[in-house]
Amino acid sequence: MKRRDFCKTTGSILLAWGINPTTAFSNTKNKVLSGQLLVNNKLEAGSFENLDNALVTTQNSNVIVKVENDVFLIRPNTKLKFTLNKINEIIKGSFHGVFGKREEELLIKTPSGTIGIRGTAIYTDIDPQKKSYLLCNCAGQAVFYGNDKKLLKSLNGSHSVITITDQKITNASTFKHEAVPK
Question: Global pTM?
Fold first, then answer.
């Protein structure tokens, strides 16, 4: 994806969440933009320290948070683990993440495998009752590895969706609309 398209997509997503992109990226501090965020069971408001070996949870509302160059809309009752200001595990729940461009692939562990990110926007949802996991690549490129580290699927372009059950991709599809009108 071209840088310009990625920037337009990121800006559009933030505006859809009700966040001014210039406010979200005006400085490098980590901050809660909307809602109540718990970091290691401590309520955080406004700017907060680095997330190193931190358990991030939400309660009964959506939370919008900026961590370095990444912005997340974290859904209610979600639990994520961060190391060195980078999300590294989705324990339960769902979130929409807009990730800044990075040199090395960011690996995010899930119960069904690992997501590889370099700079993209994704939506994830873990359904523990159905023992399934949904990954939507909203823009850019993401890859999904099984727990055995074997590449299961590469998602290119916007709105590629996969459902994973027991480390097997049970559904793969692509939405027919653009995130940002051309």
Answer: 0.78
